[in-house]
Amino acid sequence: MALRLKKDIKKASYYVWFLGAQESRGLRGEEFALPAIRLLEERARNLEPFKVTLQVSHKGLKIIQNVTAKGKQQTIKHFIPHGSITSAVVQGDVVACVLLLYNPITGCPVHVHAYRLVI
Q1: Helices (H) and strands (E) in the chain, counts
Q2: Which SUPFAM superfamilies match (predicted)?
Q3: Which of 27, 56, 62, 116 is the most exposed place for a label (fewest CB within 10 A)?
Q4: Residue 24: enclosing H or E segment and its boundaries?
Q5: 3-state secondary structure (DSSP) of residue 102
Q6: Domain spanning 11-117, CATH architecture
Q7: Separation between Cα atoms, residue 89 and residue 105, nearest integer Å
């Protein structure tokens, strides 16, 4: 597999459902992402997931959510640098990535985020 340079990666946007985030016990590989995908898909059946725009570029991952609060439209943006993404797994129409993001509430630095493409 060839090493991808910054100029080789084009910016792309996807309209997706954010299924959620789950703590992970490992940094990379399907053995850590697939159980989280199953759990997050099960959770999404009970609650409607957030619809977000996912922008992927050489800089990292940008999550953009449009919300309406008090009758006003607001845009919430989260940026995840490319160095924080340790791996990505595709299962059907769900993409999950393992991220190094410290959560002060749980104290866990490794999380799996899952996204489903909106058609």
Answers
A1: 1, 7
A2: PH domain-like
A3: 27
A4: none
A5: coil
A6: Roll (2.30)
A7: 26
Per DSSP, what are the bridge partners of residue 54? 14, 63
Q: Which amino acid is at 19?
A: L
Tokens of 88: 């990505």
Tell me the two tokens of residue 8. Answer: 């080789």
Residues 6+ apart with CB under 8 A from 42: none
Q: Is residue 38 within a helix (H) or strand (E), and if so which, with residue range?
A: helix 30-46
The string of pLDDT tens digits covering residues 57-107 is 888 889 999 888 888 999 999 998 988 888 888 988 899 988 888 877 778
**CA 94 centroid distance within chain:** 10
Domain boundaries, the chain: 11-117
Q: Alpha-carbon distance 84 to 19, whole Å?
A: 19
pTM (two decimals): 0.80
